[in-house]
Every structure is written in C-alpha cells, then in structure tokens.
Specification:
Layout lengths: L2 H20 L4 H18 L2 H18 L1
Length: 65
C-alpha cells in the first residue's frame, strides 16, 4: 500500500479516536495532527518519535491552559 495511504488511514483513525474527547468540531485539527504524527513516524522509522511528539503536544496544551 505504501506510506501515503497508510498515513491517511491512520490519521482518520486518530481523528475518530479523539471525537469522544473533543467532539466533531475538532476533527479537522485532529486529522491534521494525525498526518503530522504519521509523517514523523514515516520520516524516522520509529513509533517512539510520534509518541514523543504527541507527549510534547499534550504537555504544551496542558501548560497553555
């Protein structure tokens, strides 16, 4: 299938998983975040890079509240 379609499918899944937390209005930003995290994973070849990026985003969001 290749990395492009896989990233799109997983970005959709990422956005869908966040609907219960943030609602439907956040789907576009969650989809974009999924794309970024997927690209980080594809660029590095390691899932830890995406997990670390997600952690930093969560910490930044918590700190900015």
């Amino acid at each position: 299938m290749g990395p492009g379609p896989q990233i799109l499918i997983l970005a959709l899944a990422f956005a869908a998983m966040h609907i219960p937390f943030y609602g439907w209005r956040a789907v576009p930003i969650d989809f974009a975040a999924g794309l970024v995290l997927g690209c980080v994973r594809a660029a590095t070849g390691r899932w830890q890079a995406g997990a670390g990026t997600h952690l930093l985003a969560d910490l930044a969001g918590w700190w900015l509240r």
